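### Sample
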Amino acid sequence: MSASILKSVAARRTVYALKPEFPANFKLADLQATVQAIIKDTPSAFNSQGNRAVILTGETHKSVWDSVVNSIDSPDGKKRPASVRDEAVSSIIFFTDDKVTETLQEQFPAFASAFPSFADHSSGAAQITTWAAITESGLGGHLQHYNGYVKAALGDKIPQNWTVQAQLCVGVPATPAGEKTYIENPVKIFD
């Protein structure tokens, strides 16, 4: 069992060159079911379940990323969001619900300063788990952080108390991921 999970984690790679399509025999409903299951089962502080996600596709995907492109002044800064708009089939937007964090801070004041970090940790767990899962489905992707631009582009489509954490931009890999190198970083055991 753990070998399967480790294989999925190792297979997860950053793939920027995408084709705006889903793999054969994979549909948007499959992506939605995958993301929904991960959001449901990702651990969170005190089982608070503050992770949220939406999937952008079709015209909404294109218009949100077009808004991001148009919000950036630098021509070089426009390149990545333009490629997301034009090459990704979909974007999974990860959020944390600030009301959940604030409620925890009120209920457990001794941990109040730690709860925002705990929410970030839980969101990161949902992001990497989703990325590994979609890789197993034949999708490629890359994680982006155009958080403020994306939130502004979504406007009233999402609650104001949702903080954008990241965007996982997905599609069929147009080219394989580059070679991955590793640093020497042994895990030690202290007995």
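The CA atoms of residues 15 and 177 lie 5 Å apart. This sample (Nitroreductase) is used throughout the tutorial notebook.
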